[in-house]
């Protein structure tokens, strides 16, 4: 006996519906377009500002190391030739005055790496505490 079905006959689907594929690709494209500018910008960090600064006792005269924007280092307004000389001068000053306080005043445009090198040289010379000179915000 031959059994035949009546009605529409279903055949295998021979083509792919690209509409869902295009929808997913457009969503991915929008995500990448939104996130790509964030990768180049990085993070924006607001550094804290000093509202009040504690004063120094009048009888203590600290050593002030100044790092200028051109990379020149000076100690108490006397120029020093490089980081190695800075370390020697600070070490010698500490031998004369063990209670010496050292402050670093670095121009805000100086590269952070150079500031870290100067701080490391001062620490290597034997300074335990290093103060950073800041300015009060202008009103």
Structure report:
The protein is 37% helix and 14% strand. The protein is an alpha/beta fold and 139 residues long. It has a domain at 63-132: 2-Layer Sandwich (Nucleotidyltransferase, domain 5), CATH 3.30.420.270. The protein has a five-stranded mixed sheet with strand order 3-2-1-4-5. Strand 2 (73-75) and strand 3 form a beta hairpin. The longest helix has 23 residues, at 19-41. Mean pLDDT is 79; it is low at 42-47.
Brief overview:
The protein has 139 residues and is α/β, with parallel strands linked by helices. It has three helices and five strands. Strands 3-2-1-4-5 form a five-stranded mixed beta sheet.
Estimate the global geometry from the Cα principal axes: rod-shaped
Element-level helix/strand string: HEEEHEHE
Mean pLDDT: 79
CATH architectural grouping of the domain at 63-132: 2-Layer Sandwich
Q: Looking at CATH, which topology of the domain at 63-132 would you report?
A: Nucleotidyltransferase, domain 5
How many H/I helices? Answer: 3
Q: How large is the share of residues in beta strands?
A: 5-15%
| Proportion of helical residues | 25-40%
Which spans have pLDDT < 50 for at least 5 consecutive residues?
A: 42-47
The radius of gyration computed from the alpha-carbon positions, rounded to a whole number of angstroms, is 34 Å
What's the arrangement of strands in the largest beta sheet? 3-2-1-4-5
CATH class of the domain at 63-132: Alpha Beta
Query: Which structural category fits the helices and strands?
Result: alpha/beta
Characterize the largest beta sheet: strand count, sense, and whether it forms a barrel. Answer: 5 strands, mixed
Count all strands and give the number: 5
